[in-house]
Design goal:
Elements lengths: L11 E5 L18 H11 L7 E4 L5 H4 L5 H9 L26 H20 L5 E4 L20 H9 L6 E5 L6 H6 L6 E8 L28 E6 L5 H19 L3 E5 L17 H13 L4 E4 L6 H16 L42 H17 L3
Parallel strand pairs: 1-2, 1-3, 3-8, 4-5, 4-7, 5-6, 7-8
The protein binds ligand TV7, calcium ion and zinc ion.
Length: about 400
Amino acid sequence: NNGIVRPKGYNVSWHVNPELEKHHFGHSHPMKPWRLTLAKSLIMSYGMHAAMDTYFSRRATNEEMRDFHTEDYLDYLRTAIPAPPDDEVPGRFNLGGSDCPIFEGLFDYCSMYSGASLDAARKLCNHESDIAVNWSGGLHHAKKSEASGFCYANDIVLAILQMLRTFPRVLYIDIDVHHGDGVEEAFWSTDRVMTLSFHKYDGMNFFPGTGELERTGPETEGNAGAHHALNVPLMDGINDQQYQSLFETIVGKCVAKFRPEAIVLQCGADSLAGDRLGRFNLQVQGHGQCVAFCKSLNIPLMLVGGGGYTPRNVARAWAHETSIAIGCEKTLNPIIPEHTPYRSHFRHDTIFPTLEQILGEPRANKNTKKRLDEIVCMITEQLRFCET
Ligand code: TV7
Ligand code: CA
Ligand code: ZN
């Protein structure tokens, strides 16, 4: 298996459910659960599964989903009848439009990805895993009774609620190109969860239109959640170097101040260059460096997926990040193994497709050093007010 060995005394668990990958949002919808099959194919052809505990996750029960979602919303999700999307008439609970269509097996799909995140959370809680991975999770826009932006159930919120039973404080970090609004909103009024999202922000011109630098929590006097919601609004075209420096500086300061007992990292891969919906210029290397930095903090870590709309690049990033979790990233052959199922998908312009090289028309970088320094300054200032 390519010389990949299980790290001694270090446990990584990988939570999968092949049933989940078969769901379809509809013909032209950008969210393709099938990208998980592609990622799994890369992970397994490198032999990485030999270095992790692989679990076929169970579905979340209704009761578990009720921890965050309302009964009437869950009832509707369970019984809604599949229909072609209708963007003109936004349906109940924001379901049935083209972003959140009602497709065949919708509730199964939701309970499967939620169950996988709950399994991962429990592995961290009972200290059976140092890192727990669920690439099918990370659906950060879902609200307690509303679907939003391709997300129906919020597996991250469910997982964090589970983790709060064991860990006094949880840090949530979100590197999806979109703002992690659902998670931010769910923990807006508590000081036990700090949320930190890096995203493209351009007012109402980029979904979901929230996540400005200045909104850091409730402003009502005495509310515990004050200063515990941090946002890093960015412009098009940010590169690895700028992103890494921002990420390590800001996450470093958050950890020093907040002292989390566990970290959840949402690894949305739509922040990569060449993404169909995203606008950033990150490479697999720079995106993965965020995972490496979080791992280096030696705090129980959960990795979830999220967005990512150019499937071959999503698969590359999540396979690379799996290798970082188990610590074999330096020994991997850069060339994707010959026997990889679906290998042809990785062969766009070269005969020897590599794990890290992605294609994408570079976007003009609109992030100035001055602005990025200003962001770090502002966040440093905000953290001074954050009492723990
Ligand atoms: C976590 N952007 C989710 C990100 C959710 C983004 C949006 C689309 C889109 C939907 C399609 C489609 C699309 C090419 C892109 C205001 C609207 C404009 C629907 C067409 N092509 C995550 C959600 C975002 C659906 N939504 O963070 C079917 O783009 O901007 C909007 C809202 C109304 C609805 N219309 C878009 O990554 C998982 N949607 C093609 C077919
Ligand atoms: Ca984000
Ligand atoms: Zn996204």
